[in-house]
Amino acid sequence: MLSRTSSIPSNQRRNAARSGRALKRVALALLLLGVFAREAEAGRKFYLTQGTFEGAQALTACAKGYHMASLWEIFNLSALTYNTKLGLAAQDSGSGPPLFAGWIRTGFVDESTTTPGEASCHAWTSSSSGDEGSLVNLAGAWQSASSIIAPWQASASLCSHSLHVWCVAGK
User: What is the mean predicted confidence (pLDDT) over 75-92?
Assistant: First the structure.
């Protein structure tokens, strides 16, 4: 007795098998694109710690799955989601971040500097009152948010001060 597939030429069976595999790949790709689109839509999570930390503690201040953020990781707020469960909130924060300042990574070399955007408590290893680290906060007075890093405002503080820390979900 002949099977059904024996009456179909072998090249047609191969082509059908290839088409089936190709359709499976396309379906998988579409599924993955949907997952990635939902993740992108949700936005990378970030928060400002509820507790405060001296400069040398800043690198270990974030919850598991998060790390101390550089400004460039949290710069574009429209691509982020503020984690209200972990993060500090003010009375009128809603679902967004508060206006409080927090330590932020700079991406600058480990030098003793007092310039916001460069100061880093010696790469976040110092809590000395002789060293400074960079801070950012969202502008409080909306009319004056004309800085080059708007809506963020930068400043520097002594590494011995206990301040909040900006955290972002790891990649």
Answer: 94
pTM: 0.73
Q: What's the confidence (pLDDT) of residue 37? A: 41
At residue 147, the 3 state secondary structure works out as: coil
Q: Determine contact, residues 69/152, Cβ cutoff 8 Å.
A: no
Question: Rounded distance, CA 26 to CA 14, Å?
Answer: 18
* Right CATH for 43-169 from 1.10.3860, 2.40.10, 3.30.450, 3.10.100: 3.10.100
Q: How far apart are CA 111 and CA 118, in angstroms?
A: 8
Distance CA(151)–CA(18), nearest Å, equals: 53
pLDDT recorded at residue 34: 47
- So what's the pLDDT on residue 161? 97
* Segments making up each domain of the chain, as ranges: 5-40, 43-169
Which contiguous run of DSSP H or E holds residue 46?
A: strand 44-48
d(CA 157, CA 147): 19
With tokens 């990378």, the residue in question is 44
Q: Minimal CA–CA distance to 144: which of 136, 135, 153?
A: 153
